[in-house]
Amino acid sequence: MNILLLSDFFYFFYTSLVSHLNEKGIKSSICIASFGNSKKYNEEVAFLQLPEYGTYTSNLNKATILKYIKENDINVILFPQISDVEDLIKEVKNINKSIACLFLLHNRPDLVVADKRERFKRLHLKDVRSLKTLLAWGIPQFYLFIIAKQWQSWAIRQYNAFDKIVVLSPSYISEYEKVMGKKDIQSKIVAIPNPKIEYVSKISIHDKKKQIVFVGRLAGEKAVYRLLQIWEKIYRQLSDWKLVIVGDGETREENENLTKFLGLENVEFLGSQKSIPIIDESSILCLTSNIEGQPTVFMEAMTLGVVPIGFDSFSAIYEMIDNGMNGIIIPAFDLNQYAEALRQLAFDSERRFCLAMNAQTKVRQFDMSVVSEMWVHLFKELKLL
Question: What is the mean pLDDT of residues 6-31?
């Protein structure tokens, strides 16, 4: 089976999947088509350099992709969140109708609407710079209605264009249906989670630092300002603890300024760097995002024996975490409850150790051996195996 991955988005999940399929005796290969260079990929992974940067559907890029498909007997094409490809899919099907075109949605199905809803709550008159921001500030519900209708149209187009829509959680199947405004009578929507990457902790659960860590891109949807507001409520009681922010992005300066404005202590912004060693030395990992899909950092933390805490701003969190047993789930967006849960966890080391050990067991549901079986089932359903 020959797979073409359009984009290097989360490419390591799919290259790992192909390696595992080969280990199981299912002869498979993968090629990554992207605008970048091939240096970051394993030598065993084929790379298709697209000639024009920016869009996969330019005439030249389409011609390059279609030529590769013809010459390499491609069976499956994976589209990670790439939209507006209906014409490309039609041309692929003209080559061979049996080529499976799969849309991979790596977030909750209503991500744009859900994110905008929370961002609009923070808008002030001074932020108005255009007609769009004026509408978002003045009549947010109307603007959200318009966005929801646009998103509905987008979801239906993807549904009609692709052979399968692959979401990250069973709960996202009904959510995708809700976005479309119709039932999935053809069973085109399937749930397959991302697999966890195998990491081995170098630090015992009992020897981890009194450190709380955030890892991610410092962007609006990650809402790191909430974590800083939570820290404001408890940092005086946790004088021997530290909050570490790993990552960079457009809201870094805003968050650093908020840290100074609130007079917060024991907060460190580390910027972009290898996150696994920092997660591994920490005791707790926090997310306070507007939206998530299936956070990779949660799986990394749980694998390393670090307790995850997050808002239920995405339904898949209830499949990742059993609240109070291997992590903590907070109703979105209750900052007081989050702060109290964090404070209690910091003070109660025995409970923290117990949750961390349970987390290492819970995250095994995302082992590649488990996830690959879901892909094999899908490939068989599509008559590719």
Answer: 92
**327 three-class SS:** strand
The region, left, alpha or beta by phi > 0 then psi within -120 to 50, assigned to residue 200 is: beta
DSSP 235: T
Strands (E), the chain: 2-6, 29-34, 46-49, 76-80, 100-104, 164-167, 189-191, 211-215, 242-246, 267-271, 284-286, 307-311, 328-330
Dihedral sign for Cα atoms in the order 101, 102, 103, 106 = negative
What is the Cα–Cα distance from 152 to 320, expressed in whole angstroms?
Answer: 27
Mean local confidence (pLDDT), 198-206:
96
pLDDT tens digits, 218-246: 999 999 999 999 999 999 999 999 999 99
Q: List, for residues 149-180, the tens digit of each pLDDT value.
A: 999 999 999 999 999 999 999 999 999 999 99
Residue 277, C-beta contacts closer than 8 angstroms, at least 6 positions apart: 202
123 burial (CB, 10 Å; 0-12 / 13-18 / 19+) is middle
Cβ atoms of 179 and 153 within 8 Å: the answer is no
Give the Cα separation of 323 and 26 in Å (integer). 38
Check: CB of residue 217 under 8 Å from CB of residue 245. no
Q: What DSSP line would sit under 44-62, residue for residue? A: TSEEEE-SSSS-TTSHHHH
Render pLDDT for 88-104 as a digit per residue (tens, 0 to 9): 999 999 999 999 999 99
Share the mean pLDDT of the chain: 94
pLDDT (mean) for 347-362? 98
Beta strand segments in 44-187, E = 46-49, 76-80, 100-104, 164-167
* Inter-residue contact 293 to 227 (CB < 8 Å): no
Q: Is residue 12 over pLDDT 90?
A: no
Cα distances from 278 to residues 44, 140, 174, 214, 357, in angstroms, run 30, 39, 36, 10, 18
Place of tokens 């899919």: 89
pLDDT band at 38 (very low <50, low <70, confident <90, very high): low
